[in-house]
Amino acid sequence: MKSRIPKTVGVVVHSGKPEARGRLLELLTVLREHHVAVLLEREAAALAGKPKLARLLRGIGTTADMVIVLGGDGTILRVARELEEATPILGVNLGHLGFLTSIHGDRLQGPLHDILRGQYEISQRHTLHTTLIRSGKRRAAHQALNDVVVSRGALSRIVRLRLFVDGELLTEYVCDGMIFATATGSTAYSLSAGGPILVPTSRALIITPICPHALSNRSVIAGENSIIRCLVADAAAELLLTVDGQVQLRMQVGDEVEVHRSPRTVQLVTPKDHSYFEVLREKLKWSGANV
Predict the structure, then answer these.
(1) What topology is assigned to 126-264 in CATH?
(2) Which of 92, 88, 109, 112 is nearest to 100 (CA)?
């Protein structure tokens, strides 16, 4: 996607971060220097001392050319879910290095000036559409940028999950749960459960069992057009369906979860010199051969 100079920018901030207010004021100063119109979400407006200028995120998405998020990966996941528009999102990290944020808060100004001059790229990320089905009826549908997870609740009881790919039985898993991840989400929960890393542009869907009882059960990579169905065949305790770690739905035996690639994409803004593999090396502490 071709980059353009943003004239109107929405601003979202995680106000719980210690440096949030300082970085927000710094950001607003730079935006004024570039004569950019600013739309503040509620937390950002309150932190900036301008509560009367607060806007809802959905409204910002329909007006802004770009949304700048001060926070971390979790804040970006929330914004991507609630935005409902293909508005480009620029993530500024206020904590540890994130996979979805592309600028460090303590090195904000240089990259930001370039981006406001139109010198940036768009990383197009694919999402998942998930639907909870109960007694043959579709009960709830959500979009996920990272992953959709079926997991047990507080009690340590195994579950039996029957998986179908494009209508054909894959197998029945005896496990603690199941992760369905995008390429973006391949470096999140799926990775910690032993799943593979996919480059962000990949359209594949990752299926990763959580603590499977059969050692031969490993992650499966489904095609970009595959439709996955996960049937809860048996569970001795509470089950949860979690979307991007933020939306939770209760499940019961007999419920099904349908997962497939969504036509909706999320546009992440990155500086021209941004390197996904550099982030990967830094985040995963890869330092090359140790022999």
Answers:
(1) Tumour Suppressor Smad4 (2.60.200)
(2) 92
**Helix, strand, coil share (%) of the chain residues, nearest 5:** 25, 40, 35
Residues 191-242 have pLDDT tens digits of 999 999 999 989 999 999 999 998 888 999 999 999 999 999 998 778 999 9
Mind listing the pLDDT tens digit for each residue in 31-79? 999 999 999 999 999 999 999 999 999 899 999 999 999 999 999 999 9
Q: Are 208 and 193 in contact (CB under 8 A)?
A: yes
Copy the structure tokens of residue 200. 């962000």
Task: Name the CATH code of domain 8-119+272-283 (choices 3.40.50.10330, 3.40.50.720, 3.20.20.140, 3.90.190.20).
Answer: 3.40.50.10330
pTM: 0.93
Segments making up each domain of the chain, as ranges: 8-119+272-283, 126-264
Spatial distance between the Cα atoms of 150 and 158, rounded to a whole number of angstroms: 12
| pLDDT of residue 158 exceeding 90 | no
Alpha-carbon torsion (120, 280, 183, 160), positive or negative: negative
Q: State residue 66 phi and psi, 5-degree precision.
A: -160, 150
Which helix (H) or strand (E) covers residue 66, if one does?
Answer: strand 66-71
Catalytic position from the list 73, 147, 176, 255: 73
Q: What is the pLDDT of residues 107-130, one digit of tens each?
A: 899 999 999 999 999 999 999 999
Residue 73 appears among annotated catalytic residues: yes
- Give the pair of three-digit tokens for residue 271: 């500086």
